[in-house]
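Methods — Computational structure assignment.
A single polypeptide chain was analysed. Its primary sequence is given first, followed by the predicted tertiary structure written as structure tokens.
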Amino acid sequence: MYTPRFNQVSDRSILIEAMKAYAFAILFGPLNSTDNAAAPHHATHLPLIVKDEGPHGLLEGHFAKANTHWQSLANRETLVVFPGPHSYVSPSLYAEELSVPTWNYVTIHAYGTLELIEDDAGKDALLSGLIQANEPAYAEQWRSLPDGFRRSMLGGIVGFRIPIARIEGKFKISQNRPESDRRAVYAAHAAGSPDQQQLAAWMKRLIEW
């Protein structure tokens, strides 16, 4: 990913935090098992569990078994994109009249080899992790469902884990602008939409004023 130096974020704790916050991610890779680099690529949108393990973190999730993308991604490097908040930035916020609009955003690209989890116990553990992350109160109901129904649900998915081998964080939050411009963008975003407010929070944390 093209990332100017001033937009790069490499702090491990910040990247883990951001991936957890924006965990509805996109997995990219070919739709067939050939090694042809020119083969068309495919994208699958999935909620992931981000674990603070290994040098850059560990990702876990599952595909619907009917989505054959898992077959071609198995045991090969996979790009996982975590899209974060984004927002238009008006040139009216800048002191210099000779300015143009831009777009601020946060995104993380993580790379690692996708390992399948196909046994029921492993898949059940994955689902438990997703439930715990999104609706802990549902865990008791999931456990109380009939065994046959739960097994049928587990049979309809294929789990996976991706130990992150390489990671890129891009936080484009007006770092390259003069302080007066940054303050104007921050004030506008802090009073704006949910996405803008998240960007303002990252500006407050990551920019030296």
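Note: The mean pLDDT is 94.
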